[in-house]
Batch of 2 targets.
Target 1
Amino acid sequence: MREFGYQRVFDVAGAVAQLGADPDARFLGGGTNLVDLMKSGVERPARLVDVSHLPLGRIEPTEDGGLHLGATVTNSDLAAHPEVRRRYPALAQAVLAGASGQLRNVATVGGNLLQRTRCGYFTDVTQPCNKRVPGSGCPAVAGEHRNHAILGASGHCVAVHPSDMGVALAAFDAVVSYETADGPGELPMAEFYTPVGETPHLETALPSGALITGVTLPPAPVAARSRYRKVRERASYAFAIGSVAAALDVRDGAVHDVRLAFGAVASRPWRAREAERVMTGAPADAETFAAAVDAELAAAEPLPQNGYKVSLMHNLVVAVLTELREEASR
Amino acid sequence: MDPSTSSDIILDINGEKRSLSVDHRTTLLDALRERLDLTGTKKGCDQGQCGACTVLLDGHRAVSCLHLAVAAEGRHITTIEGIAEGERLHPVQQAFLDLDGYQCGYCTPGQICSAVAMIEEHAAGWPSAVTDDVRAEAAPPPLTAEEIRERMSGNLCRCGAYVQIVEAVAQAAGAGKEAAA
């Protein structure tokens, strides 16, 4: 590991000033991903600015009936919070489906959004990787890609984003707020992650040196009846091979409102807007659910080893929507 | 100007203040084992995946292999050496002995630290990934064997002593044999 400097900061302005425009400096939150990547040599910062003591650890209601999550709120505190569980249960479920108790106790909201892919080529510095070393190539396209993307990828990178939390945030139209030396800014989840294209090393639309200060969930009555379900290769403590965050409001047998986002299928949490469009106003039945998910997956471009994800997502989404409908009719 | 790459820090471990100078690259795990002679905390994978290095930070369980020692300054750190009260074993330690919750014992300090904090998390009403209804109005889930397995999934046991580990945790939590069946 490269030697590095360490500074602890206690206010947002100080954090932003300390990082400055230094491309060799990184913010340190819980460190569960960054420290691991430093050990493997993927990340080689010259300076760490420890932001875990910033006063951003609160969850507070917003004036319009939404919820604001501070950037240093831990996964554990997020998932245990009564208002999160009451108003956005799929968000609590998504967070609980990720990592282990030990990691959730230190991992933070801001860090979760900025965690890196677990693609085996990205984390192995002896391998080429366009995300780690732009222009070096993507061995996954012709190599091991069983758990890689089926939506929105490119020939330059087929890695998936590993976050569970982000899938629920995408479904609920969350907005990421940040601070820079030039002032604050906001990015809705739909614009937070940038398309892969030819630049897989550029992952977010955050300005250089920006510090995530929090995430705001707008009011979403539909979210009170929502679920997150994750499919993985063992019962617990593994990354998803497919997941869904779904919220459903059925009135008089028809879909009044629906939110759908998929995980582990793309370089970012995948908001399924085409599926939502097909469902809205249609009868809340199995045919509609199947047609909706198929409409979303029509854009899928599976690789030789990950075609299973298309049928996995079809079955998963139909099952979760069916459960939500039955729950509503009880 | 190159920033300093080491710091003089004071770590609060098991109620005792320990002063040391650390290279910033030093993990809390390596500081405990190599610098402070607290070798009860074990190094398994060193990647945050096995839980053998679990300690408590301000009472919350965390893996010490992914925590930099310099970042742990100011936290109350509890290691397996600080779990018992003198010669009186913590109920979780006693339950692991009573129910044979290990084979080789290497993962055991991490299992015990994890279980101590997990039981408190459950008592505080935290839901888990197998909790049927996470909504705040729902009753807190009983600590069934399924809940214990999920909540302890960050601690691997290569000997496969899981059956007894689940029973030991259930006994310590007062959940009784029925829940562990």
Target 2
Amino acid sequence: MPASAWHSRLPALAAIALIVSAFALAFAWTAGFLSPLKLTPAQALGRVSDDGQEWRMAMNSFPFFAVSSIEAFHEQVMASTPLPDTGKPDPERMKAFLARHPEAARFAEWAKTAPWPTSFANTTHNGINTSRFTSHDGDKRHVRCSMQPQAPFVAMTPQQRKDASEDFLSQDLVDRLAKAPLRWDMLVTLAEPGDSITDPSQEWPADRQQVNVDRVVIENAQPQATGPCRDLNFDPLLLPAGVDGSEDPILAARSAVYSPSFNRRQSELGHGRAAEAAGATPAAATGNTP
Amino acid sequence: MTAPAHFNLTARVLHWCMAVMILAMLFVGVGMVASISERPWLVDLHRPLGIAILLLAVARLVYRLRNPPPPLPADLPRWQAFAATASHWLLYALMLAMPLIGWSMPPPGGYPIVLWEGMHLPPIAPHDPTVYTWLPSAHTWLARVLFAAILLHLAAAL
């Protein structure tokens, strides 16, 4: 083709290149390829019913969350990442994080002073994040769920804490289940106007109305490394009809973070590294192989 | 019967509906795995949109097989004609494969397939970590191939 023919086509080719590049660029931006954290820079207990609907609950013994926003959550994870040389988080960075986030310092104080229960069976498990329930007639209420044990709370003595092995809670659970099933009441706490919906680090006042909606009975337990829990992602937004997440941004963040984490864990299983998938470090896994 | 000179109206409506849906789908897809805050509604949109694309892709394939498209321009160099035919079939293959992989992906990971609240699809694969291992990466890589193919298709058409 003569050079002049190419020349006359140049503007058209340039326009095509521009349009195609614009699409490619928009795609890369959305996919987070352009940001250092690989994120879209848009904004800084499983229950199965008869009809297959599921409610995956992951609950915690602490009564409130350590941080109040996605940004603080991210900052906390970065500040608590172990340094390669010491194997421990950078203490200066952690101190600066706690100074910037008083709610995280309050959480650290709670963790240091709260008594330790002797068993999973006498521990209250809290949902922490806020959900929204919809009634049959369309009425919506913000709620927080918790599991109240029927066994009375017993705190560990200092001696018990010193002697406890790493997995004594799991062992205790197996021992108790060998004797009898364990029971919790599922309590739903209803929000009043002014209660924090978007900030899981803020507890609701203790006098809020609580509804006892169900009883959870545990009859047997399986080990984490081989039981069915291993192959499930406890995504807090896997909810049955009538239950939704709320404006609490931590729910979306947990859902977003658990998914790739779960995919990596399953990938370890798929590549025959079951011990690592169950939580062992590669060195420990080879050391402990029976 | 002589071949038509243009794609007929049905074919064009199908093409442009799917063009918008598939492009939106690719953006929703990469956005939902890269966003910390916007994932929930993007995932809720991704599943029904994917199934809609699958249904349309099947309809479009059937329609195309029954109604042959107009021939490529006779003066097109042979390599370009080959590239056009091959890339069109690649696009068809991907627009069927992507939703099918997407549909088969949740059950091996132990997830239900929620189309919308209260509406679940039946699983087409077992709950199995070994199966699950390669599905998300296959879905991701084929999505990138699909996006590249669409860009080429767009550049070639322009």
